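User: Hi! I'm working on a homework problem where we have to compare a predicted structure to a textbook description. Could you give me the structure for the chain below?
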Amino acid sequence: MIAYLIGLSAGLVPALSTGPVFLTLVQNAIDHGFKKAIYFIVGVALTDTSIILLTWLGLSQISDGSEPPAELSIGGGLLLILFGLVFIFKKEKEQKPTAPSSTHLQKFGLFTQAIMLNAINPIIWGFWAAISNYAITEFNDNSSELLFFAGVLNMVWVTDVLKAYYAQKLNKYLNEKFKRYLRIGIGLILTILGLKLIVEFLIL
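Assistant: Happy to help. Predicted C-alpha cells:
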C-alpha cells in the first residue's frame, strides 16, 4: 500500500507537466468534446503502460543516460511538427450532424494520434525508464513495484480525465476567434518543440 501511495506522489510529475500530450489533449477536448477526448486519453494510457512494461522488463537501455536513438529524436520531432502544422492550418467546419461512421473514425483518429504522439517521443521513454529504474532499486519485490506503477498511472489517468473535462467546460466561454488563436498558439508550440528536439539531436 505504501508503494502505491509513493506511486501516486510520483505520478504528479507527469500529471502536472505541460508538454505536447497535455497541449494536444486540451485542444482535442475543446474541439471534439469530453467524451471523444477520452479516446485520446485511452491511447495515452495504453502507450504509457506498454512503455513501462518494456522498460521494467529490461529495455530501459533505450534511455539510460545515453543519447536517444536517432529514430526517436528525428521521428518524434517530425511528428510534433506535423501535429503543430495541422493545428495551425486546420480550418473551422460548419457544425453539421455527424454520421455514425464518421464519429467512429474520429474516435479512432484520436486514439491513434495519442499512441503516435506518446510512443515516438524520447522524453516519454526517458521518463518512464527513470520511473522503472527507481521502482527496481527502491522496492524489493515485484508486487510492490507493480503497486508503485499502478499509483503512478492512476494519478496520470485521473488528472488527464479532469483536464479533458474542464477543457470542455471552458469551451462554452470561448468565442470562435479566441479558439482559433488558441489552436494556432498550441500548433506553434508543438512545432517549436519538434524543431527543438531535432536540432538538439543534430547538435549533440
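For your comparison, note the following. Residues 59-66 have pLDDT under 50 and may be disordered. Residues 142-171 form the longest helix (30 residues). Good luck with the assignment!
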